Amino acid sequence: MAGIHLLPLLCSMAFGKTLSAAIRSLSPNIRLGGFVGGAASSKKNFTSPTLIFATCLILLGCGLCSRLGGSREFYTPTYGYQVILGLGVGLTFSSGTLLTNLASNSGDVAAAQGALSQARMLGGSIGLSMATIVLNNKLSNGLARVLDHTQIKSLEQSLNNIATLSPVNQGLVAQMYTDAFNEQMRICTYISATALLAAFATYQKTPASVAAMREKQNAMAEEALNEGTELNSGIGGGPVQSESGAHDR
Questions:
Q1: Closest Cα to residue 170, out of 146, 192, 191?
Q2: Would you say the pTM of this structure is higher than 0.85?
Q3: How many CB atoms within 10 Å of residue 72?
């Protein structure tokens, strides 16, 4: 997750691209990965192999992106790295969601999906915190002889404050950011390697059936519909019986 946030920032800070353009070039790959992941398990349960493959893509993408730091010139293969990383993240989203549905009991699906969402948010928060610490350390150590304490603190609070610096110092800050990005993506690579081991742990020789899950969902929907119909008929029948009783009297 952290790499998805860091890559557009690198394109904006170091390569001179607008942040919105950098995000637009990455988001279609995530959407495509989500579609492919859902389609792969539409009839048969391939969620675990898909998740393992997706984690491999993320590991490869993070490793390749760790080579982008250290230079302020746009590296053309970055477009390919975005495709690899975006597809991996999209596949992880869809396969992880479906895997949670298949592994949960019918009454626990909502709770399981909520826990999965919270886990994603927690992981993203930890990753961004790690990235912020690495960046702030780079700025503090690398710019201490060039900028004063107030300027460094303002950059740690927001990189948008780079506009207040001279062109020469802006270039130095951008160089520090690319160096920090290199280190950030190396850490993401190590974390992705650990995630790959966790993805292998989801493999099952006889995975849950997608058809059986759909039958349960249809049965639950039909049961809820019948209960709603009975409830509505009971509510509608009350006043009629009361009026008929009053007429007889």
A1: 146
A2: no
A3: 13
Question: Which residue intervals of 66-108 are DSSP H helices?
Answer: 78-103
Rounded Cα distance between 34 and 31, Å, is 5
Residue with tokens 């709603």: 228
DSSP-derived letter for residue 17 is -
First to last CA, the chain: 72
Per-residue pLDDT of the chain (249 residues; tens, 9 = 90+): 666 777 777 776 766 666 666 667 677 888 888 898 888 888 888 888 999 999 999 999 888 888 876 555 666 777 788 889 889 999 998 888 888 888 777 777 788 888 888 888 888 888 888 888 988 888 888 888 888 888 888 887 877 787 788 888 888 888 888 888 888 889 999 999 999 999 999 888 888 777 777 777 677 667 667 766 766 666 655 554 444 444 444
Q: What are the helix (H) ranges across 104-209?
A: 109-142, 149-157, 167-200
To 10 degrees, what angle do helices 167-200 and 47-65 make?
Answer: 150
**55 CB contacts (<8 Å, ≥6 apart)?**
88, 92, 192, 195, 196, 199
The Cα–Cα gap between 194 and 221 comes to 39
The tokens for 94 are 């869809």
| Contact by Cβ (8 Å): 147, 193 | no
Neighbours of 73 (CB within 10 A): 7
Q: Cβ–Cβ contacts within 10 Å for residue 186, how many?
A: 17
